[in-house]
Each structure stands twice: as C-alpha cells, then as structure tokens.
Amino acid sequence: MEVLDAQRQVEEILTLKEQWHGDTIEVKTPALFSRLQKVTNNSAKTGRLEVKKCLMIHVKCWHIYPEELKDLLLEIEFPLEYPSETTCRLRALHASDLHLEYKSCTKTITNYVESMCGFECVESVMDWIAENKHSCLIESENENDSLLVGNDREGKVQCFILRYNHLLSGREHKKEKSMLDVAKKSKLQGGLLWGSPGVVIVVPPSTFEDANEYASDCRTIGKRPDGVEEVWLRLDCAEEAGLGGLAQQKRGGKLRELDTATLRIACDDENVLRMVLGVH
What we know:
The protein is built from 12 helices and 10 strands. It is α+β, with helices and mostly antiparallel strands.
C-alpha cells in the first residue's frame, strides 16, 4: 500500500467523522485505522506499507435522515490502491440485518462513483444520498431484492459468492494455487468453480466476515473478486454437492472443486444457478 494512499484514506475518514458527529461514521477496522494514523503521521509521503486488510467504515444513514432512510446502512471499503488507482467499494445494507442488501441501490451508487478514480469519493456518495434519499431504496423494495421472509429460508443456509473474471486450474497458475492454500489455511468452508467466470462459494460455518477477509486475501494475491454476494442454498443440496462439513474434512480441509453439474446440484434452481454465475 502506498503511504500517500494511506494518508489520504485516514484524512478522508477523519474529515467524515468531523462532518457527521456521534457514531454516524463507524470505523469497522479500528486497529488498522489506528496503525495507519500512527504510521502516516511519522512517514514521508512516498514509499510503501505492508498492509493486507482494507479499511472499512459503516455510515448509519438513519442518523442523518431518520424518516427517509431509517433502514439504510452503507458499508464502504477502501481498497489498498484507493484513491490513487481505484474507487471505494460499497454495499447498501439493511440496518436490522447486515446480511440483507439493497442490491439496486448498491448497483446505482457503484455506477455513480465508477468515474471517480483518483479522487476521494465518499463525500460525493453522501451528496448523492442527500439528493436521492426519497427514491434510492424504492426500486430495491419494489423488486423485493433486499428481503427473504417467512418460509423462503426454511431448510436453507446462508452462503456467500465471490465471483472472479477467471480462475484457471493447474499448478502452473500460481495465483489460483495461492487462493486454495489461503482458503485451506483459514479453514474456509465451501467450493470453487474453475473457468470464466470463476466462482468461490462460502458455506457455513464460515461467515460473511470470513468471506470478506478471504476476498481481501485474494486481492493481495492478485485475484480480485467482484465483491461478496449473499445467496441462500438448500442445506440438503449443498451437502449433496459436497460443500463444507464432513465432506470437506475428508478432503483434508480443501475447498470442493466443482464443475457446472455439481454446482447445479448445490443450487437446485436454474435462477439461483444463473445468479451464482452472474448470468442475467
């Protein structure tokens, strides 16, 4: 991580915390934030820092707009190359359950900041939220893409998808081999689909936090997932496909290497399969 990027990230977060008082802006990586504050205060503006994780903040939008956005929380992650070479990554989440996402809102804001590479963009995101506070969640709610209720979850387990442009099998592909080694070392539960797109499915007992940390590890390796996306799979189908649990223990803790047919068994639904593959 470039020292200058670290300084700019720290300064941006401090500015946001000054602008929005109280705990409206919550730093979710406090140890890393404190470390970067100390390092950047005592460093020149050139050089590199050994950093593997990314800074993350939560913006509690209901503190600012209690009527219009009473259920909206923005999760914003600062990639190691932000802001010099990339934009921030964000998700619009349901405040009462952070595993539920307002997907249309996430997509719209992501598209909005796409052209802001080289600039601190969180303030622009907050300006966009202010201008669209009456409408930014309407499409998500109409599509019912933020909630699964009642019996829709019965017999299902919460899993997470990491989608890559491509994942290539074989020892000669060192980045992919490193991905498998990191997954085994961190005891990540799930499976991996080779090809284009490449997909990693994270299943219980691994959590969203585990999936998010693995995504960060992959970016350090040089394989960048699109993000971490939630999907609910039938427990019996996930077990039949050999994802996690006893089947993974028998493999020595390795991720299950999937083909499309096995992935179809895990998904048990063509629409879920298409969503996992990112086919629209």
